[in-house]
Amino acid sequence: MKQIIYACFVVSTIIACSPKTETASTFLVPADINSYNLDSSANIDLVKKMITAFEAGDSLTYRSCYADSAIFHDNGTDMTLDQNVVLFNYFKSNGVSVKMEKVDPIWEIVNKEASPNGVTNYVMSFQHTIYKKGDKEVKVIVSVVNGIKDGKIVEEWDLYNTKPMLDLMNQK
Q1: Residue (of 159, 94, 165) closest to 130 by Cα position
Q2: With helix as H, strand as E and coil as C, how does the chain read?
Q3: Across residues 47-63, what is the average pLDDT?
Q4: Buried b / exposed e along 100-125 (16+ C-beta atoms within 10 A)
Q5: Using CA atoms, how far apart are residues 38 and 57, in angstroms rounded to an integer?
Q6: Which band of pLDDT confidence, cut at 50, 70 and 90, is reported for residue 10?
Q7: Dihedrals φ, ψ of 137, to 5°?
Q8: DSSP state, 31?
Q9: How do strand 97-111 and strand 35-38 relate by DSSP bridges?
Q10: What is the pLDDT averaged over residues 52-67?
Q11: Would you place residue 169 in the very low, low, confident or very high pLDDT band (cuts 50, 70, 90)?
Q12: Are 62 and 72 in contact (CB under 8 A)?
């Protein structure tokens, strides 16, 4: 009997000390919900890539994050991708640099049903941005929703206070 207990102890010790192997978990969406949230995903990474490109003034990488037909709703003003990219030159020609202080929070909402344009995935973020001109700077929090389809941003809604930015640009 002592040998059996000792053998069980040795086997359990070996199993307990063995390295754990990671297994992929599968999230099963319950049938009775309409959507769920993610705190990390390829779509969140896409939005972070877009933010980094915007901060760096890298219009080529910035454009690559969007579908060619992307629509922007910038404080209620609708514009195309080409019209939005003009902002890079506008900031630069006015001597304004952009720095992303932080992006927090950021999450993805996945809907079971698609919107009329086929979007089921939306990344929500609050982007804490610093605009600087000379020795003056302003901080602006931008609330952004990015509609993503097939690995590209197809629609974007931005809400922020424009007054501090305009005041900064008008300074000499």
Answers
A1: 165
A2: CHHHHHHHHHHHHHHHHCCCCCCCCCCCCCCCCCEEEECCCHHHHHHHHHHHHHHHCCHHHHHHCEEEEEEEEECCEEEEHHHHHHHHHHHHHCCCEEEEEEEEEEEEEEECCCCCCCCCEEEEEEEEEEEEECCEEEEEEEEEEEEEECCEEEEEEEECCCHHHHHHHHCC
A3: 95
A4: beebeebebeeeeeeeeeebebbbbb
A5: 29
A6: very low
A7: -145, 155
A8: T
A9: antiparallel
A10: 95
A11: confident
A12: no
Tokens, residue 127: 């982007």
Amino acid at 102: K
Provide the CB-side half-sphere exposure for 44 (13 A, CA).
16
Q: Decide: residue 147, CB within 10 A, 0-12 exposed, 13-18 middle, 19+ buried.
A: buried
Q: Please state whether the predicted TM-score (pTM) of the whole model is above 0.85.
A: no
pLDDT of residue 8: 46
- The pair of structure tokens assigned to 118 is 């086929």
Q: Indicate the residue type of 157.
A: W
Put residue 151 in one of left, alpha, beta given phi > 0 → left and psi -120 to 50 → alpha: left
Which two tokens mark 110?
């996945």
**Beta carbons of 168 and 96 less than 8 angstroms apart:** yes
Q: Token pair of 160, please?
A: 């922020």
- Please give the Cα distance from 73 to 59 (Å, whole number): 19
Select from 97, 88, 109, 100 the least CA-distant residue to 39: 109
